[in-house]
Specification:
The chain is built from 8 helices and 4 strands. It is of the alpha+beta class and about 230 residues long. The chain has a domain of about 140 residues. Strand 2, helix 7 and strand 3 form a beta-alpha-beta unit. Helix 5 crosses helix 6. The termini are far apart.
Length: about 230
């Protein structure tokens, strides 16, 4: 009776796994019963379609698991960061400028404080560091947006975006600059609607401040034992 039922289900287009869920027998027995049973092209198409659908469902489930795992790890890491004091903020800003800021070179020994990035949190942090740790007055801070020329129609939107990010009025921004560099990940961007270019943050009359930041960087390297300078 079970064999006859299995044959009927197979002829209706059910897969082996579907049949086993309805008829609790050993998989080897089911294979023996159905080995001579032929299936139509429409049934074969149904099997393939179902396999693809199950694969997509599996991929969705795995992605959900990865997202949940990521959130757990991030939330756990967030809880490990306690209160950030003035001294910690001061050092963090120095290291950030070391990584992303403009430095004096042999051909430009009068470089002022100039910082560029497309990460909104990083730009917000840097502006906060200038005002909180270095006591730079707002009137000395200026901004300029660099955006790809193919996105000219988004220049006003980008201005609104960055003005809101740093908390400065639009009149603190210079004329937007349009670049001709290769558009990031051309034809592959999934965040095209979130592209607002890069923000450049400059401090007016800050050549000496740039030199001082360079000294702070050297001092950190020295105290950490990674500097080539002689100990002072």
């Amino acid at each position: 009776m079970e064999r006859r039922k299995a044959l009927e289900l197979r002829k209706q287009g059910f897969s082996y796994s579907e049949i086993l869920r309805k008829i609790p027998v050993a998989k080897s027995s089911l294979s023996l019963w159905l080995r001579s049973t032929r299936i139509s092209k429409s049934q074969e198409y149904r099997f393939k379609k179902k396999i693809i659908a199950n694969g997509k469902l599996g991929a969705i489930a795995k992605r959900k698991q990865r997202i949940e795992k990521t959130e757990r790890i991030k939330n756990g890491a967030i809880s490990e960061i306690k209160q950030v004091g003035d001294r910690e903020l001061f050092y963090m800003g120095i290291m950030l400028y070391w990584a992303e800021g403009s430095k004096s070179r042999g051909t430009n020994i009068s470089q002022g404080v100039d910082f560029s990035n497309s990460d909104p949190d990083m730009c917000r942090f840097f502006v906060n560091w200038l005002q909180t740790s270095l006591k730079i007055k707002p009137e000395r801070i200026g901004f300029c947006i660099y955006i790809h020329e193919s996105q000219r129609n988004k220049s006003d939107e980008a201005l609104d975006y960055w003005s809101n990010i740093v908390g400065f009025s639009k009149d603190k921004f210079n004329k937007t600059c349009f670049t001709k560099t290769v558009y990031p990940r051309k034809h592959k961007r999934k965040d095209k609607g979130n592209y607002y270019g890069q923000l450049r943050i400059k401090v007016r009359k800050s050549t000496d401040l740039n030199r001082k930041i360079a000294g702070w960087i050297d001092g950190i390297c020295l105290r950490c034992g990674v500097s080539k300078l002689d100990k002072v």
